[in-house]
Amino acid sequence: MYKIIQKKALNPTVTLMEVDAPLVARKAEPGQFIILRASEDGERIPLTIAGYDREKGTVTIIFQIVGGATETLNALNEGDFIHDFVGPLGKATETEGLKKVAVVGGGVGCAIAYPVAKKLHDIGVEVHSIVGFRNEDLIILEDEFKAVSDKYVLMTDDGSAGEKGLVTNALEKLIESGEEYDEVITIGPLIMMKFVVGVTKKYNVKTVVSMNPIMVDGTGMCGGCRLTVGGQTKFACVDGPDFDGFEVDFDEAMARSATYKPFEQKAREEACNLLKMEVK
Amino acid sequence: MPNMSLEKNKMPSQEPDVRNKNFDEVALGYTAEMAIDEANRCLHCKHRPCVSGCPVQVDIPEFIEEVKNGRFEEAYQIISRSSSLPAVCGRVCPQESQCEQKCVRGIKGEPVAIGRLERFVADYHNANFKDAPVKPASNGHKVAIIGSGPSGLACAGDLAKKGYDVTIYEALHLAGGVLAYGIPEFRLPKSIVQKEIDGLKALGVKVETNVVIGKTISIDELKDEFGYETVFIGSGAGLPKFMNIPGENLNGVYSANEFLTRINLMKAYLGDSKTPIMRPKSAVIVGGGNVAMDAARCAKRLGADVTIVYRRTKEELPARAEEVEHAEEEGIKFAFLNNPVEVIGENGWVKSVKCQQMELSEPDESGRRRPVAVEGAFNEIECDCMIMSIGTSPNPLIKSTTEGLDTQKWGGIIADEETGLTSREGVYAGGDAVTGAATVILAMGAGKAAAKAMDEYMQNRAK
Ligand SMILES: Cc1cc2nc3c(=O)[nH]c(=O)nc-3n(C[C@H](O)[C@H](O)[C@H](O)COP(=O)(O)OP(=O)(O)OC[C@H]3O[C@@H](n4cnc5c(N)ncnc54)[C@H](O)[C@@H]3O)c2cc1C
Ligand SMILES: Cc1cc2nc3c(=O)[nH]c(=O)nc-3n(C[C@H](O)[C@H](O)[C@H](O)COP(=O)(O)OP(=O)(O)OC[C@H]3O[C@@H](n4cnc5c(N)ncnc54)[C@H](O)[C@@H]3O)c2cc1C
Ligand code: SF4
Ligand code: SF4
Ligand code: FES
């Protein structure tokens, strides 16, 4: 059982939790994730490690309420316990040798992108963060991003904050203006990452994408998280979640992520799932 | 006077047409009367051929003798000398190729139903003897076990009984290994597995779920930082194989591991489970082992029309004979001599499977008849779900995070056959992690053998 030390609503549908999980905190690195079951009969869901404190033995997660499992999780409060919490899983984001990076996040994907941006900043990399949200009410981690970014560009679909438009517009503009990135790291809805790769391919800037397929075990046992990368089948939970964006078959990944659509409450899905609506 | 009937006492079972719609146990178990009647078919052979067929040498004639006399608890104690999981092995051992294959009664007629008797005895014990085992005094040595499958459970049990301070680390949220996430409820009720685990806990064994060794903690940390004197790796062979054919990543294509895990571990067969499972209309299962039979019978129970596609013939099916028989009775179809070459999709979902027709070659030097393609002959089987059950191999996670741990090319950990000792001092391994996908009884036997060697090693070091 894993105690919730802190709970904070970042926006109406995104929650931050700091969880007591010393064994996970000991080893966690940016880019890795955990799998949890909120309650004894709950579903196993993967969430990225948004932060960790090795001394306190805590791990921070930031999640968007999109369906049954995240709803159950959100119903827990400070002092309550998460039934299962396993990790750190997956490979850490590679940061070696980087000097200047654009981090492109969409919606709750920003929660996943933030620890990577922070780590890059901490090791002296020049970080340009481009984050996108549907509207100003949904913005998360603004101060945090600003603190670790040499440049921070905020985009909203409706122009209610920052600039109006998509993260791809902002990225293209920066590249056009002469910014030379060693790498672009992008995390967000599949469709957004696909379009980011569309831009970076044009300019031939290496791009790392963080894939989030449906998972069960997170250890390479079920094969449910498989993707086609460079024509080969890869398991996102052990071979990823980061992959070379130029190699990923996004169309297949989008089809696979819809496997359980008919099972997931449609209404809820349509109402809340920013992950997918963010860039429409 | 022995019972000279040529046939085994029949196993009372749920009717095929009833059971293929529920997940309750298929075989209901002998009554005491049937058990005694069956025990009387045993001739108590002096040369004990049956014992030589059992991988852990259960004293078969001796335990059956006690059953004859209605002394069931005594029979249980005899089995317990060699086996840690009789209620499990009595249910899932491939008896027809082990103990029962060697039984003299099998020369003319059916062998003695050794497995069914073992199950009866274990169930009798579980139902009637509820006292928790007494926790032995600690001897101060710490042991870590990786994985809670049959090998890990057996190793933990034997060491705990000797007073070792044993901790099992399990990656999933529930202990039991394949017994919990793979083999379905209707073949092995999960309450039986839970009982074994509760028994270990009563002996003082700690079970830490949600710990992935190699990720959360490495083997070196277990030894150097956590102070475990020895480590046993019983991590199984959980990495699913795919066929690498076009269309394999279409929606509706599962590995058997995913399909079975959703159903068993996540209880997706219960209507109110939080974990989604596809309820296929028609499912094609690829493979011919126990895993394929389990996947097929689960799909059937979810309401599908099921076809097992296998590239050889019925004679070569590696599954337990009883499972094949049960599957057939439950209305599962077989398409023998077929090998999938392409999965055909529509709107991202599986629509059909294209199979190459095969035939068996003349026996080669090894006497094996290999399947070879019949030039130009293909079949297309319509389905909305395809489940790959073509085997698994050991997960590379532990190897890749443990310096100096030698493995075979295919991933199996190299370990001494008698002791389970690996290329790392104080690190032992056994079960599917060493042999590749095998059987419960072999995994259990390997766990026991390693426990013995680990005990000797730690006692010698202490001197
Ligand atoms: C490596 C990884 C890291 C992730 N990190 C984050 C994060 O930091 N914050 C965050 O908000 N979300 C994250 N996600 C997505 C998160 O796991 C899903 O939003 C969550 O599982 C939804 O569950 P639900 O029952 O609430 O919703 P449901 O109604 O069940 O599903 C809504 C959508 O979530 C996805 N989903 C459902 N079940 C799973 C599952 N078992 N595994 C993966 N995706 C699933 C599907 O695309 C589905 O359409 C991550 C996913 C992965 C694979
Ligand atoms: C569907 C199915 C049906 C079967 N039917 C039969 C049958 O009828 N008869 C029979 O004799 N055999 C059968 N088998 C085979 C039998 O179940 C296995 O041979 C046996 O379970 C192997 O035991 P094990 O202890 O080696 O490993 P497993 O039972 O595989 O257990 C390994 C455990 O280790 C855990 N683990 C793995 N890696 C790590 C890690 N890094 N850190 C922590 N934990 C880890 C896993 O989660 C798992 O719980 C079947 C197998 C399957 C899949
Ligand atoms: S353990 Fe298995 S092989 Fe041995 S006697 Fe029992 S059923 Fe037969
Ligand atoms: S071989 Fe058969 S008849 Fe002989 S002792 Fe063994 S079980 Fe009994
Ligand atoms: S989540 Fe099961 S293999 Fe990746």
TrEMBL record, chain A:
[2Fe-2S] cluster binds at C222, C225, C237. InterPro entries: Cyt_c3_hydrogenase_gsu, Dihydroorotate_DH_Fe-S-bd, FAD-bd_FR_type, FNR_nucleotide-bd, PyrK_electron_transfer, Riboflavin_synthase-like_b-brl. One of its GO terms (molecular function) is flavin adenine dinucleotide binding. It comes from the Bacteria. SUPFAM superfamilies: Ferredoxin reductase-like, C-terminal NADP-linked domain, Riboflavin synthase domain-like. Binds 1 FAD per subunit. Binds 1 [2Fe-2S] cluster per subunit. Coiled coil: none annotated. One of its GO terms (biological process) is pyrimidine nucleotide biosynthetic process. Its cofactor is FAD; [2Fe-2S] cluster. FAD binds at I62, F63, Q64. Keywords: 2Fe-2S, FAD, Flavoprotein, Iron, Iron-sulfur, Metal-binding. Pfam families: DHODB_Fe-S_bind. Residues 1-95 form the FAD-binding FR-type domain. This is Ferredoxin--NADP+ reductase. It comes from Eubacterium ruminantium.
TrEMBL record, chain B:
Residues 32-66 form the 4Fe-4S ferredoxin-type domain. SUPFAM superfamilies: alpha-helical ferredoxin, Nucleotide-binding domain. It holds the Pfam family Fer4_20. GO terms for molecular function: iron-sulfur cluster binding; oxidoreductase activity. PANTHER family: GLUTAMATE SYNTHASE [NADPH] SMALL CHAIN, GLUTAMATE SYNTHASE [NADPH] SMALL CHAIN-RELATED. This is Glutamate synthase (NADPH/NADH) small chain. It comes from Eubacterium ruminantium.
